[in-house]
Amino acid sequence: MTVPAISARAVSKRFGPISALSDVDFVLETGEVHALLGVNGAGKSTFIKILSGVYAKDEGTIEIAGEGFDCRNPKDAIRYGIATVQQHPELVADFTGYENIFLGREAATASFTARMDRTALQRRGDALLSRFPVEIDLSRTIQDMSAVEREIVAILQAIAGENIRILILDEPTSTLTEVEKAVLFRLMKTLRTSGISILYITHRLEEVMEIADRFSVFRGGRMIATMTPDEVREKNLSLAELMLGETMGAVFPKKGEPADLGELVLNVRGLRHGRLFSNIGFQLQRGEILGIFGLVGSGIDELSKVLYGALSKDMGEIELKGEKVSLRSPRDSLKAGIFLVPGDRRIEGLALAQSAIFNTTLANLGRASGFAGFLKRSVNKLKSVEYAGRVALNPPNVTMPVSGFSGGNQQKIVIAKGLFADADVYIFVEPTVGVDIGARAKLYGLMRELSRTAGVIVMSTDCDEVHGISDRSFALYKGRQIASPGTIFTRNQLLMAGIMGDAHHA
Q1: Is the same domain home to 220 and 277?
Q2: I need a surface site. Which of 59, 193, 204, 494 has the fewest CB within 10 A?
Q3: Residue limits of the ABC transporter domain (predicted)?
């Protein structure tokens, strides 16, 4: 009988009076893809950090391939054969793939005077590719690679160490297209065939059914179920309900009624930006949510940036509350009453080293400041606490640096910043990337709440999200607006419009 890659029994972890894990039993088989599911705070991240050496367990036993696991730091975890690829891998942008894979291990021998042999480096990289075949040119720099190629480099970097037999992947598909996801899944299957066991953390439940051999559900610090996708299908179970412990109500809030619509807040005509999109036109009223669906490369990201003043338009007009506006910078847009929740929150939406208070108030310094421009610190803290409650920030510690929060909670802080901005138009781009199913309903409810006093635009590569949250919608296909006369699409029409450029194929 094959010895499991990981065998954990009665593992517990406390942080002061808080029990993060309680009596967790878990088995990862050799050569298995095992998904870990749970809402934020359910315990899966704590369990993973114990396995990767970030935390030490308080109680219980763990064996790695039958050997007792005594891990005090990430270096120990690697010694046991466990490697982790974080949700946002830290790669050196102007280094090649080869150089990133062997970063810190460039020379054959560890010596202060050892020099890097690029020919040997390439030979080592090619040997790695011969073991785990995947189409990638490792001589290119990271900055010239696609999102999936960067993910592949991060995985190769992780498994390049000696005797790596367990790979932990944290939200690896959060920025990938469907085509890129298929490339990653092929690599994962190759790794599995070679005997490497994979722990797969994701909020995208459909991926669990596609790639996982088994999955385990964490809830309230406990492991409450381990099943196969086939068992879920046979029993007609809902993964979301297993995670939440209750019957899922409507994830999306009730849509607005025509009688709820207010003034026209945004009128866009003939907008064009280079070759990325052209002839974009739509109207937005208070009281409604307008959805825009498009795949990566369709132009939705660039359109959001033009509306926010981060990119300049080549042609077209933008009217805000009946007056033409010239948006030359995000500062112009914020002053005019347009707020953007960007798709890449880490680079474009947050100051990661600063507190949640600083980030929440950043978009409206006039409101955050008093006499002579001094910040109203006590008032700002109270407001930040209020907005942290509204977005269900976990933990609700507004003085903590944003870098200490999970990806989903970082997204909540960006939305809290939008609430503080008190805008007339809110633009959300990929609003729930990395956000668990329980928190999504809360965020969708906030969007609907915002739409009662403002106009809201949701742009996403998730067709179900766009269709579920919006009152009206259209698609962008290769920079071209695809819309029916009344811009009221069924879900399938919207999907076909976005992936084929023709809603009539639905």
Answers
A1: no
A2: 193
A3: 6-245, 259-503
In the chain, the amino acid numbered 462 is: D
Question: Model confidence over 206-227: pLDDT tens digits?
Answer: 889 999 999 999 988 899 999 9
Tell me the residue range of the domain where 373 lies: 340-422
- 271 and 315 inside one domain: yes
CB 98 within 8 A of CB 153: no
Domain assignment of residue 445, yes or no: no
Strand partners, 460: 293
Give the pair of three-digit tokens for residue 394: 């976990």
Residue 226: name the closest of 235, 238, 217 by CA: 217
Q: What is the pLDDT of residues 12-40, one digit of tens each?
A: 998 887 788 999 999 999 999 999 998 76
Q: In what order do the strands lie in the sheet with 82-85?
A: 82-85, 166-170, 197-201, 33-37, 214-219, 222-227
259 shares its domain with 140: no
User: Residue 158 falls within a domain, yes or no?
Assistant: yes
In which element (H, E) is residue 442 found? helix 437-451
In a domain? residue 443:
no
CB-count burial class (<10 Å; 0-12, 13-18, 19+) for 90: exposed
Residue in 490, 462, 466 with CA at minimum distance from that of residue 206: 462
Q: Backbone phi, then psi, for 126, in 5-degree steps?
A: -65, -35
221 HSE (CA, 13 A, CB side): 12
Residues 417 and 429 in one domain: no
In one-letter notation, the amino acid at residue 271 is: L
440 part of a folded domain: no
| Residue range 177-188: mean pLDDT, rounded | 86
Burial per residue of 483-493, b for 16 or more beta-carbon CB atoms within 10 angstroms, e otherwise: beeebebeeeb
Query: CA-CA distance, 461 to 430, in Å (whole number)?
Result: 7
Reported as a pLDDT band with limits 50, 70 and 90, residue 497 is: confident
If you average pLDDT over residues 138-149, what whole number do you get?
91
Task: Tell whether the model's pLDDT for residue 228 goes beyond 90.
Answer: yes
Q: pTM of the full predicted structure?
A: 0.64
| Helix/strand/coil for 32 | coil
Cβ neighbour number for residue 104 with a 10 Å cutoff: 7
Number of domains making up the chain: 3
Q: For position 439, what pLDDT does the model report? A: 73
